[in-house]
From TrEMBL:
<dbReference type="Pfam" id="PF00005">
    <property type="entry name" value="ABC_tran"/>
</dbReference>
<dbReference type="InterPro" id="IPR003439">
    <property type="entry name" value="ABC_transporter-like_ATP-bd"/>
</dbReference>
<keyword id="KW-1003">Cell membrane</keyword>
<dbReference type="InterPro" id="IPR003593">
    <property type="entry name" value="AAA+_ATPase"/>
</dbReference>
<feature type="domain" description="ABC transporter">
    <location>
        <begin position="10"/>
        <end position="240"/>
    </location>
</feature>
<comment type="similarity">
    <text>Belongs to the ABC transporter superfamily. Drug exporter-1 (DrugE1) (TC 3.A.1.105) family.</text>
</comment>
<keyword id="KW-0813">Transport</keyword>
<protein>
    <submittedName>
        <fullName>ATP-binding cassette domain-containing protein</fullName>
    </submittedName>
</protein>
<keyword id="KW-0472">Membrane</keyword>
<dbReference type="InterPro" id="IPR017871">
    <property type="entry name" value="ABC_transporter-like_CS"/>
</dbReference>
<dbReference type="InterPro" id="IPR005894">
    <property type="entry name" value="DrrA"/>
</dbReference>
<keyword id="KW-1278">Translocase</keyword>
<dbReference type="InterPro" id="IPR050763">
    <property type="entry name" value="ABC_transporter_ATP-binding"/>
</dbReference>
<keyword id="KW-0046">Antibiotic resistance</keyword>
<keyword id="KW-0547">Nucleotide-binding</keyword>
<keyword id="KW-0067">ATP-binding</keyword>
<dbReference type="GO" id="GO:0005524">
    <property type="term" value="F:ATP binding"/>
</dbReference>
Length: 345
């Protein structure tokens, strides 16, 4: 958990930013708990970067309010700045300097004495797998290395809140995984991370909670489980020891779950689709009640298994599947989240 706060890392209400006719951020209400990764998921032009810039005090809101660790982004911008760090398209590393030179320079700018700056630079280069590239100019780095040095530069002083604006866009799978590991390590040190992404699997991998934004508005918010539950339902897949027990198993499932039960062509297999209705309402209506909703699918699965056992039915294997975030996005907007080739400003 974050070492220096008990309240949320970020709280916004009715936050607005317009550019001429464009309402880039159009009344966003968010509560980002401290100590975890919060995902802001949205397609090109959704308003992600604009929202991050408002929160990092790089832009002034036109309406609404935002607080970072309780500090108002307008009235207490300095206090906000002292707690946050930003990695994005606006990275601070100098292309002509080497990895080490960049980190040492930035460390010096942050007020560290030279030996301390050198030590921290070496430590971060090592942690980010850049030791071999430490004495090469950053302009010769690959995209993945570049992204890693950007993040390293932004955590020279461990920030309380780190904004990562699309940290893995354009990276190959291996580099993405490296960045993900770094994000996890940063959070483990107590930093809250607000991560924007166009990648559903990235939000799924890293974020505890996710806000889906589209056209400057939050169209859904909750834990991954809640988001998924709001759209489709989970599915329990079962394989029985004995095909003869399947009709009985069906009855048990129908009785214990708010579920549609399907028998598979395979005579020992059956699938129960858990009703979305039981868990969907809670997160949208009241984000304080979400923990219970998140347990929905797993709880129901556990109950089903124990009822089956009690009825003398032997279950050989069992799995719980959830709808993908892609399905979630498609259901929430009218377009898939993966359409991201169109130009954006
Ligand atoms: N400085 C600006 N001047 C005018 N319009 C802007 C400016 N910055 C952003 N916009 C517009 O605001 C909207 C939101 O843009 P923003 O960059 O916040 O989206 P994004 O979600 O970060 O997109 P991407 O995934 O492409 O980075 C877009 O319509 C964009 O064209
Ligand atoms: Mg952006």
């Amino acid at each position: 958990m974050s070492k220096s706060t008990t309240g949320p890392a970020i709280e916004t209400s009715g936050l607005v930013k317009t550019f001429g006719e464009t309402r880039a951020v159009d009344g966003i209400d968010l509560v980002v708990p401290a100590g975890s990764v919060y995902g802001v998921l949205g397609p090109n032009g959704a308003g992600k970067t604009t929202a991050v810039k408002l929160l990092a005090t790089l832009l002034r809101p036109d309406g609404g309010e935002a607080r970072v660790f309780g500090h108002d982004v307008l009235r207490e911008a300095d206090a906000v700045r002292s707690r946050v760090s930003l990695t994005g398209q606006y990275a601070s590393v100098d292309e002509d300097l080497t990895g080490t030179e960049n980190l040492v320079l930035l460390g010096r700018l942050l007020g560290h004495r030279k030996p301390a700056a050198r030590e921290r630079a070496a430590q971060l280069l090592e942690a980010f797998g850049l030791t071999d590239a430490a004495s090469r100019q950053v302009k010769n780095y690959s995209g993945g290395m570049r992204r890693r040095i950007d993040i390293a530069a932004s955590i020279l002083n461990t920030p309380d809140l780190l904004f990562l604006d699309e940290p893995t866009t354009g990276l190959d799978p291996r580099s993405r995984n490296q960045v993900w590991d770094i994000v996890r390590a940063v959070v483990a040190q107590g930093t809250t991370v607000l991560l924007t992404t166009q990648y559903l699997d990235e939000a799924d991998q890293l974020a505890s909670r996710i806000a889906v934004i589209d056209h400057g508005k939050v169209i859904a918010e909750g834990t991954k489980g809640e988001l998924k539950a709001s759209v489709g339902a989970g599915a329990i897949h079962l394989r029985l020891r004995d095909a003869a027990q399947r009709p009985e198993a069906e009855k048990v499932l129908l009785r214990t779950l708010d579920a549609q039960v399907q028998t598979d062509p395979d005579p020992v297999a059956l699938t129960a689709r858990i009703g979305a209705g039981t868990v969907a309402g809670a997160w949208a209506a009241d984000r304080t009640e979400t923990a219970a909703a998140d347990l929905g699918a797993a709880d129901q699965a556990a109950r089903a298994l124990s009822e089956l056992t009690a009825a003398g039915i032997t279950v050989d294997s069992f799995s719980l599947g959830q709808p993908s975030l892609d399905e979630v996005f498609l259901a929430l907007t009218d377009h898939p989240a993966t359409v991201k080739e169109e130009a954006s400003a």
